[in-house]
Design brief:
Layout lengths: L5 H5 L6 E6 L4 H14 L4 E7 H10 L12 E5 L9 E5 L3 E7 L5 H6 L4 E7 L7 H21 L3 H13 L13 E2 L5 E7 L7 H9 L4 E7 L8 H10 L4 E6 L16 E6 L13 E6 L3 E6 L5 H4 L10 E8 L4 H5 L6 E2 L23 E6 L2 E6 L10 E4 L2 E4 L1 E2 L5 E4 L9 E5 L9 E2 L1 E2 H7 L6 H12 L11 H4 L4 H17 L18 H7 L18 H10 L55 E2 L1 H27 L8 H17 L2 E5 L2 E5 L15 H13 L23 H21 L5 H18 L7 H14 L4 H23 L1
Parallel strand pairs: 1-2, 2-3, 9-10, 10-11, 16-24, 25-26
Antiparallel strand pairs: 1-4, 4-5, 5-6, 7-8, 8-14, 9-12, 11-15, 12-13, 13-14, 16-17, 17-21, 18-19, 18-22, 20-21, 22-23, 26-27
Helix pairs in contact: 6-11, 7-8, 12-16, 16-18, 17-18, 17-19, 18-20, 19-20, 19-21, 20-21, 20-22, 20-23, 21-23, 22-23
C-alpha cells in the first residue's frame, strides 16, 4: 500500500475550506502546525470538530494551547452517546476536493509517531484518471456526513461557513453522494461506512451485508483497542462465521485482553510490523474478510468494539467512519503489508497497559455551543440539557444570566467585549456545572474566512505569497483592485440608512436587525477615548471583502500579526515525547502533554530579485504609473458620491502607498544581453522633465485628498464608517494610519537634503498637516507604531541605517506637530 505524508499533502494550494475531525484533542499541534499550514496554502475557512469529552479534558489540562480557537478557526464540540470518533479531513476548493479518512487523529502522535492507515479521495476539475466521478461522490458523502453536526450546532458562524462552501465550491452541490459501493476504473469497489450513532444499522451489520452471505475463509482483525468483554469481536465472528480468525497484534508489544481468551478458543494470533520501527504504536484499525471470490477490507476509525461496530441486535454508540474496499481474492494482505506468518502463542500475550475503549462514567455534561458577536453572546444548549431556563454563563470575568430568545437559544449582553480565546461553562439552575467549551467569535471568524473573491486576484496573490512572485507585478491588476461590486454599493447604501437611524431619523419597515455604525473615525475615537492606545494587535478588520482581506495579508506579509509556529511540527516525523508515555494519541483517553508550543516567526526570508528584460521593465514601470493614476481616479469618484466610501478603502490605501514606496526604493533589475542596469518606476523627488513620476508629488496629492479634502470636498477617510461592534481599533485601521505616516516621513526624508529649500518646506508643512489629520483616528501606541514602521522597511529590504534615519524623521514630524499644537 502506498505511503502518504499528511504534512506534505497539506502543503498544496487549491483549497479554501477545511473540515477536520478528531477524537483526541492536541490544540498546540492543530493551532501551531495544521491550521498554520492550512492558512499558508490558502485555506481560510477552517473548522475543527472534536469529541466533547476529550475537548473538555484538553481545555482543563492545557487551556493556553487554544490560542487561535474561536477566532481564526471554528472549534465545535460534538456529543454522541459514546465517542465522536471519526478521523476525517475534508478540503474543498472552487475546482477541487480532497477527503482523507482513516485512523489518525489530528494530533502530533496521529500525524507523526503512530503507525496509521488512511485512504485519500481527490477530485480536480482539470484532471481525469477514470475515477474522478467515484471520488467526487465519496467527497460529497463525507461532507454530508459531517454537515449533520455542523447544521445542528445552530451557530450563525457555522451557517456562514457552510454558505461560503455552497457559494465557493458549487461543484460539490451538483454531485449526488453514492448510496452504496461505487466501482473504480480497475473493477474494485469502494465506499464510506459512516456511523452517526443515531440508532441505525451499525458498521458490523453493513459489513455482513457487503459480504452477502459468502463463505468467509479467514477474518483478520487489527485493532489497538477492544471492548471489555470482546463483544465486538464475538459479534463479527457470529455474523461472518469465518473458517479461521486471526488477530494481528504488534510483534513488539502484543497486548490483548487476556482475561477474555476463554471466550475465543478458536482464534489465532500473529505478530506484525516487527522491523526497525517495531516499537511504533500501531493505531491503525483494519478488518480483512477473505472469501473465495473477493477480499473485503474495512479500515478507518472503528476499533473492534461493540460501541464502534454495533451488533446485529444492538446499535453502535460511537460516531465512526471507515473505508470499504472490495478487491480480488488474495490481494488484501499484500496490499496492506500484513505478514501473518509470525504466530504468537496465547501464553505470550500481554495485558493491555492502556484503558480499554469503552464509555467512561462520570463524563461532564456537554454544554452545547456558544457564539459571540461583540459583547453579545448566544448559547445553543446540547440535547442532554433538559432544563436550560435560569442558566448562567461562567467565564473568567464572572457569572452572567442568560435570557431566553428564539429557536431554543439563549442570549446575554456583557458590559464589554470579552478577551479571546474565551473558555466558558454553564451553571444550570440546579447548580450543575457543564463541561467547558471555546466560544466562537462570529466577527473574527468572518474576517478570518471572507470567502473567495476575484479569480484573477486569487491567482496573483497566490503567486506572490507562495511562488516568489514580485509584489510590484500586482500593479497590473489595479483596475480590479480599485473597483466596486454591486454588493459593496448595497452595503454602502445600507450604511447611510443605518447612520440615519442612529441619529433618530426613523426606521424602515421589515429591517429589525440594523447595525448602528460609527459614522466617522472621529466618532469612533470619541467612543474609544478611555481606551489605551492601539498596539495593532487586534484580530479584527473593519471589512469582510475577501479580495481586500487577502490584499492586506499580502501587503503586510511578515510585518503584522504573523502566525507563530513550531519548526518541529512541520517535519514529517514528529519528535519523541508528547501525548502519552506509550506514544498513542489517546483513543483510550490517555493523557496528552500538549507540549508542542508556538515559537517565534521572523520576517520572511529575502528572495532573489527578479531580472527583467528592458521591455519588460519598462512595461512594469508603466503599469505602476497606471496603477497610481487608477487609484487617483478611483478616490475622485468616491469623493463625488454621497454614500460613505467602502470600508475596504483602508486596505486599498495601504496597497497603493506600499506600491509607491517600493517603486521608488526598490529598482527593477534589467538585463540586456551582458549588460545589467536598474530602473526605478518612480522618482523620489520631482525632476524637471516629469513631475508626475515623483513620489513626493503623487503621494502628497493622494494623502491630501484622503485625509484633508478641500474647501468643496470633505476628506474621504473622514466619511468612512466603522462597525458598531468594534471595541478596539481594527487592525486595518492601525495599518492605514501607520503606513500613511510612514509615507509622509519618507517624503520629508526624500527632500530634506535637496537644494530646493522651498520644496522641502512645502513638503514638510503639508506632511505635518496630513499627520495632524491622522490624529482624528484613535491613538496608536508609539512603541508599537515605530516597530511596525521598522518592519515595513525590513520587508522592502531597506538597510537598517536608512531605517534609523527614517525613524528619526518620523519622530521629528510627530514632535513638530506636538510643538505647533502647544504654541
Amino acid at each position: 500500500m502506498n505511503s502518504i505524508s499528511l504534512f506534505k499533502d497539506l502543503a498544496r494550494t487549491g483549497f479554501h475550506t477545511s473540515i477536520v475531525t478528531t477524537y483526541s484533542v492536541d490544540a498546540a499541534f492543530y493551532d501551531g502546525s495544521l491550521h498554520h499550514r492550512l492558512r499558508a496554502y490558502g485555506s481560510d475557512n477552517n473548522i475543527l470538530m472534536a469529541d466533547a469529552n476529550m475537548l473538555q479534558r484538553a481545555i482543563s489540562e492545557t487551556p493556553e494551547s487554544f490560542g487561535r480557537a474561536g477566532t481564526a478557526y471554528a472549534l465545535l464540540p460534538i456529543s454522541v452517546p459514546g465517542a465522536f470518533h471519526p478521523k476525517i479531513s475534508v478540503r474543498l476548493g472552487s475546482d477541487a476536493g480532497c477527503v482523507i479518512v482513516g485512523s489518525a487523529n489530528a494530533t502530533a502522535a496521529g500525524w507523526g509517531r503512530n503507525r496509521e492507515i488512511v485512504g485519500q479521495f481527490e477530485w480536480w476539475r482539470k484532471r481525469s484518471d477514470g475515477d474522478e466521478n467515484a471520488n467526487r461522490q465519496l467527497i460529497r458523502k463525507a461532507f454530508d456526513y459531517l454537515s449533520k453536526w455542523l447544521q445542528e450546532a445552530g451557530l450563525e458562524t457555522v451557517k456562514r461557513k457552510l454558505d461560503l462552501i455552497e457559494r465557493d465550491a458549487a461543484w460539490l452541490f451538483e454531485t449526488e453522494a453514492n448510496e452504496g459501493p461505487v466501482e473504480l476504473n480497475d473493477g474494485t469497489l469502494i465506499d464510506l461506512l459512516c456511523e452517526d450513532a443515531s440508532g441505525g444499522p451499525g458498521i458490523l451489520s453493513r459489513i455482513a451485508d457487503l459480504v452477502g452471505g459468502a463463505a468467509v475463509t479467514q477474518l483478520v482483525v487489527l485493532s489497538p483497542y477492544w471492548d471489555a468483554k470482546l463483544e465486538g469481536l464475538l459479534g463479527l465472528i457470529e455474523a461472518l462465521k469465518p473458517e479461521k480468525t486471526t488477530i494481528a497484534l504488534s510483534a513488539h508489544s502484543p497486548e490483548f485482553p487476556v482475561d477474555q481468551l476463554h471466550r475465543i478458543p478458536q482464534v489465532s494470533f500473529a505478530g506484525v510490523f516487527d522491523g526497525n520501527d517495531g516499537a511504533r504504536f500501531i493505531h491503525a484499525k483494519v478488518f480483512v474478510i477473505q472469501t473465495e471470490d473477493w477480499d473485503h477490507i474495512v479500515y478507518g476509525s472503528a476499533n473492534c468494539s461493540d460501541d464502534a461496530l454495533g451488533l446485529t441486535d444492538l446499535a453502535a454508540r460511537n460516531a465512526e467512519c471507515s473505508v470499504y474496499r472490495r478487491l480480488p481474492p488474495g490481494s488484501a494482505l499484500k496490499l496492506l503489508g500484513l505478514d501473518l506468518s509470525s504466530t504468537i502463542d496465547p501464553s505470550d500475550l500481554m495485558e493491555p497497559t492502556k484503558e480499554l475503549l469503552e464509555a467512561k462514567p462520570g463524563a461532564s455534561l456537554p454544554l452545547g455551543t456558544i457564539e459571540a458577536a461583540g459583547s453579545s453572546l448566544r448559547w445553543v444548549p446540547s440535547k442532554r440539557i433538559a432544563d436550560p431556563e435560569g442558566a448562567v454563563l461562567v467565564i473568567p470575568e464572572g457569572e452572567f444570566a442568560f435570557s431566553s430568545v428564539r429557536s431554543g437559544s439563549y442570549a446575554l449582553d456583557l458590559s464589554a467585549k470579552p478577551r479571546f480565546p474565551l473558555i466558558a461553562r454553564i451553571r444550570l439552575n440546579n447548580g450543575t456545572l457543564t463541561s467547558a467549551v471555546i466560544v466562537n467569535d462570529a466577527v473574527s471568524l468572518t474576517h478570518a474566512a471572507p470567502g473567495l473573491g476575484d479569480k484573477r486576484l486569487r491567482s496573483a496573490f497566490a503567486k506572490v505569497e507562495l511562488e516568489g512572485g514580485d509584489f510590484l507585478e500586482l500593479a497590473s491588476l489595479a483596475a480590479i483592485i480599485f473597483s466596486e461590486t454591486p454588493e459593496s454599493r448595497r452595503k454602502a447604501a445600507k450604511a447611510v440608512r443605518s447612520i440615519g437611524r442612529a441619529h433618530g431619523k426613523g426606521t424602515e419597515d421589515g429591517d429589525d436587525h440594523v447595525v448602528f455604525d460609527y459614522e466617522s473615525p472621529e466618532a469612533f475615537r470619541e467612543a474609544m477615548s478611555a481606551s489605551a492606545p492601539s498596539k495593532g494587535d487586534s484580530s479584527r478588520l473593519n471589512f469582510d471583502d475577501p479580495d481586500a482581506v487577502n490584499l492586506l495579508r499580502i501587503i503586510l506579509r511578515g510585518i503584522g500579526q504573523a502566525d507563530e509556529e513550531e519548526e518541529d511540527l512541520y517535519r514529517d516525523e514528529v519528535p519523541d515525547g508528547g501525548d502519552g508515555a506509550d506514544g498513542s494519541d489517546g483513543d483510550n483517553n490517555s493523557d496528552q502533554s500538549g507540549d508542542q508550543g508556538a515559537g517565534d516567526n521572523g520576517d520572511p526570508p529575502p528572495r532573489e530579485p527578479r531580472t527583467y528584460r528592458r521591455d519588460e521593465a519598462e512595461r512594469q514601470s508603466l503599469d505602476i504609473l497606471k496603477a497610481v493614476d487608477c487609484f487617483e481616479a478611483y478616490i475622485a469618484r468616491l469623493a463625488a458620491e454621497e454614500t460613505p466610501p467602502p470600508r475596504k478603502l483602508t486596505a486599498e490605501v495601504c496597497f497603493i502607498l506600499r506600491l509607491m514606496v517600493e517603486a521608488c526604493r526598490r529598482p527593477l533589475q534589467v538585463k540586456d544581453g551582458e549588460r545589467r542596469d536598474q530602473l526605478f518606476a518612480l522618482d523620489l523627488e520631482p525632476k524637471q522633465h516629469d513631475r508626475e513620476r515623483a513620489f513626493v508629488v503623487r503621494v502628497g496629492r493622494i494623502l491630501q485628498r484622503l485625509w484633508q479634502g478641500s474647501k468643496s470636498e470633505a476628506a474621504l477617510l473622514s466619511r468612512i464608517s466603522i462597525g458598531q461592534h468594534q471595541t478596539e481599533l481594527p487592525f486595518d485601521c492601525f495599518a492605514l494610519v501607520a503606513i500613511t505616516r510612514w509615507a509622509l516621513a519618507r517624503s520629508v526624508m526624500a527632500v530634506a537634503d535637496q537644494k530646493q529649500a522651498a520644496l522641502a518646506g512645502f513638503v514638510t508643512k503639508s506632511a505635518i498637516a496630513i499627520w495632524k489629520a491622522t490624529q482624528s483616528w484613535p491613538r496608536l501606541d508609539q512603541e508599537a507604531e515605530l516597530e511596525f514602521v521598522g518592519k515595513l522597511d525590513a520587508a522592502l529590504g531597506i538597510d537598517r541605517e536608512e531605517t534609523e534615519l527614517l525613524l528619526k524623521h518620523y519622530t521629528q514630524l510627530n514632535q513638530q506637530l506636538t510643538n505647533a499644537e502647544a504654541s
